[in-house]
Amino acid sequence: MSLEWFDRVSSELQEHLESICEKYDQVGHMSIDRGAKHPRIEFFVLNEEDEREYFCTLFFDPHNEEFYFETFDLEFEQTSRTLLSDIEDIIDAVHESFHDYMNDDEDDYEEVYEVDLDDQGEHYLEDDDGDILEEIDVEWETPEVTAFKYEDEVEVTYQFGIVEETGDGVLRRINRIKTDDDDLIKDETNFIFSKEEASTIIAMIASHMDSLSEFDLQ
Questions:
Q1: Residue ranges with strand state E in the chain
Q2: Which residues pair with 59 in a beta bridge?
Q3: Residue partners of 217: CB distance under 8 A and separation at least 6
Q4: Is residue 197 over pLDDT 80?
Q5: Fewer C-beta within 10 Å: the chain N or C terminus?
Q6: How far apart are the first and last CA of the chain?
Q7: CA 19 to chain centre
Q8: What angle (nearest 5°) sits at the alpha carbon of residue 200, between those of residues 169 and 49?
């Protein structure tokens, strides 16, 4: 299994990344993990707080000597790969990912906090003072899916929906904990994101799965 193709592409991408980012007056960066089972290249820019904001992750299969992107299909709950056969396809894919990131970054959204979704799918947004700003309708595309369960003590479920008015996605997380007194504590959080954000979120999670730890309730 040779990494020659991986090293050649890594070298060329740095030059193209500089050209792509200059058009937006941005400085693009790459981080290369050559020692992973499937080596990867992560692309990012630094924000005003000097923190990394990733916009693309490129994987390399050393056995087949091919690059690919990973995407997650929420409907079928499975990961799929998009193979990139040559350097032109790779450059175009990175270029498009950066454009999507920049276009999404230019959108001016007011920061709100999501609270409480009732059974009818009504979604309330609050500001810092706790005042209700607006009520939105959510169409749930999936039932509650159990992500983790430990005996009868802890259960974590997720549910995916679409904001009817804007078409944004909603990821609903419910954490249920049974106390020693058999009381049930329910903690619910909701995360709203646009279609343009979804691919970046999925790529960042997929590229760091090996770094995560499992629940330890023993």
A1: 29-33, 40-46, 52-61, 66-73, 78-84, 113-117, 122-126, 132-140, 145-150, 154-163, 169-178, 184-193
A2: 40, 68
A3: 150, 153, 154
A4: yes
A5: C
A6: 41
A7: 26
A8: 110
Query: What confidence tens digit (pLDDT) does each residue in 65-79 have?
Result: 889 887 766 666 666
CA dihedral 70, 76, 78, 83 (to 10 degrees): -30
Return the structure tokens found at 133: 């700003």
Task: Say if residues 69 and 78 touch (Cβ distance below 8 Å).
Answer: no
Rounded distance, CA 189 to CA 209, Å? Answer: 22
Name which of 109, 116, 102 is nearest 47 in CA terms.
Answer: 102
Closest CA to 124 of 30, 190, 45: 190
CA diameter of the chain: 62
pTM over 0.85: no
How many CA atoms does the CB half-sphere of 129 hold within 13 Å? 3
CA 65 – CA 184 distance, rounded (Å): 51
CA 143, chain centre distance (Å) = 21
Query: Measured between alpha carbons, how far is residue 199 from residues 92, 96, 98, 137, 182 in Å?
Result: 16, 12, 12, 24, 40
